[in-house]
Amino acid sequence: MAQAPQIDPVLEDILEQARWAPSGDNTQPWRFEVVDPRHVVVHGFDTRSHCVYDLDGHPSQLSLGALLESMALAASSHGLCLEARRRLSVPDTLPTFDVRLLDSPGMLPDPLAAFLPQRSVQRRRLSTRSLRASEKAVLAASLPPGYAVQWFEGWRARLACARLMFDNAKLRLTMPEAHKVHRDVIEWGARYSSDRIPELALGVDAMTARLMRWVMHSWRRVDFFNTWLAGTIAPRLQMDLLPGLYCGAHFVLLAETSPRHIDDYVAAGRAMQRFWLTATQLGLQLQPELTPLIFARYVRERRTFSRTDGMQEMAQALAVQCQVVLGAVAFERAVFLGRIGAGPAASARSLRRPLKDLLVATTVQ
What is the pTM of this model? Predict the structure, then answer.
């Protein structure tokens, strides 16, 4: 029979903090099964069946890694260390982790734990001041062994990255498979959203937002505007090109070897979360830029992602552009791409589902 989950205060606080981990389109691909006060089963899932961006579930696996790192950070505030083991018998589409919290006498709270609820995505323009050497050193030091950061700084490098994002945006905005995703993940008219991206966090002006809302109602409208009225130009300018120029730098996080398997991406997600939280600690803002990496992998692996004429060819050209911008080594070892800079925190952001909605009952045999 099913037994309602009961949580002791320490575990409840750890899960409350950890649920702020980032996830693509605010999908929050995890649920918590409380076995006892020191044992939680994290039931993960991915969106590969209906989201063109979640190739093999790897972006969702990055998010699950960020969640596990967040749990570890929150646990440190209670003198506990975290042990997480993935259940190898479970399909990769449903990554499942047994998480145990172990007493660790003398353990000091990790200072990054305090920034878990503050970390957010800033899609609007940032300061163009270069990152200080001290800031870059702290960010690089935040990464665990096996990971490194490569920076793209200065006007020319930022322009190349901005153009890469601008060009990739044309692919995602002219593809019906992506339209289905965009239509479902935006909460129009909202400043905050517990399970989607609120309109005011998109980074576009009010007029463009109103037009996007009307156009995205159906693929027929999207296709007409894209074909005859250059419908992608305004959102690509406001969401990709200008933010790509107005930032301190772009960066790519690199693994020692090219990621291949689920555990590689989970580990990369843990590294990503530490880097992002360190940026928050430094007062810097950050925005992920994963689209070029995702579609470049479609191309490298000769995978079909769209039935629309011209999409595969466009992606092939974009993969070449991505390799030129990042360099051949980074192109193969990249696990995360983003932009970063000084500036105010986002005034509109995705929130999270209440913890009670993320709990699942423990099945007792």
Answer: 0.96
Tell me the CB-side half-sphere exposure of residue 68, using CA atoms within 13 A.
Answer: 30
Q: Which amino acid is at 277?
A: L
Cα-based distances in Å from 99 to 18, 117, 170, 270, 339: 13, 21, 41, 15, 32
Q: Render pLDDT for 291-322 as a digit per residue (tens, 0 to 9).
A: 999 999 999 999 999 999 999 999 999 999 99
Rounded to the nearest angstrom, the gap between the alpha carbon of residue 189 and the centroid of all alpha carbons in its chain is 23
In whole angstroms, what is the distance from residue 120 CA to residue 21 CA?
A: 9
Token duo for residue 229: 């009225």
Nearest partner of 52 among 182, 151, 156, 161, judged by Cα: 182
Residue type at 25 in one-letter notation: D
Which letter, b or e, does each residue of 265-287 get, where b requires 16 or more Cβ atoms within 10 Å of its Cβ? bbbbbbbbbbbbbbbbbbebbbb
Cα–Cα distance between 353 and 196 in angstroms, integer? 10
The helix (H) or strand (E) run that includes residue 250 is strand 249-255
Cα-atom radius of gyration of the chain, to the nearest Å?
20
CB 191 within 8 A of CB 350: no
Cα separation, 256 vs 146, whole angstroms: 5
